Amino acid sequence: MTPIPKPTLQQAIDGISDRDEYKVIVTFIREEREKFFGDLRSAESSNDVMKIAGSIAALDELLSVLS
Fold first, then answer.
1. What radius of gyration, in Å, describes the C-alpha atoms of the chain?
2. What is the pLDDT of residue 16?
3. Are 36 and 52 in contact (CB under 8 A)?
4. Which residue has the higher pLDDT, 15 or 36?
5. Neighbours of 36 (CB within 10 A)
6. Which of 7, 40, 44, 51 has the fewest C-beta atoms lying within 10 Å of its C-beta?
7. Which residues, at least 6 apart from 37, have a Cβ–Cβ distance to it below 8 Å?
């Protein structure tokens, strides 16, 4: 029995990019990213700033993969 080849990440994204669920997920990630920018303005300690900056960076990475 020949194993079924797994799609690459880009092939998987291309396969679902026209679905409504995909668009909802991308919109949610963008909104969360903007919310973190708002939280960044009100951060009181440098530790909070680093946590929020890490969250923003993670969401940026997700958006770059999904776009």
1. 17
2. 86
3. yes
4. 36
5. 19
6. 44
7. 56
DSSP string, 20-52: HHHHHHHHHHHHHHHHHHHHHHT--SHHHHHHH
Q: In this structure, what token pair is assigned to residue 30?
A: 């963008």
The residue type at 6? K
Residue in 59, 58, 57, 52 with CA at minimum distance from that of residue 31: 59
Place of tokens 């958006």: 63
Residue 11 tokens, joined: 């092939």
Place of tokens 């939280």: 39
Q: Record the tokens describing residue 27, joined without a space.
A: 């919109």
The amino acid at residue 7 is P
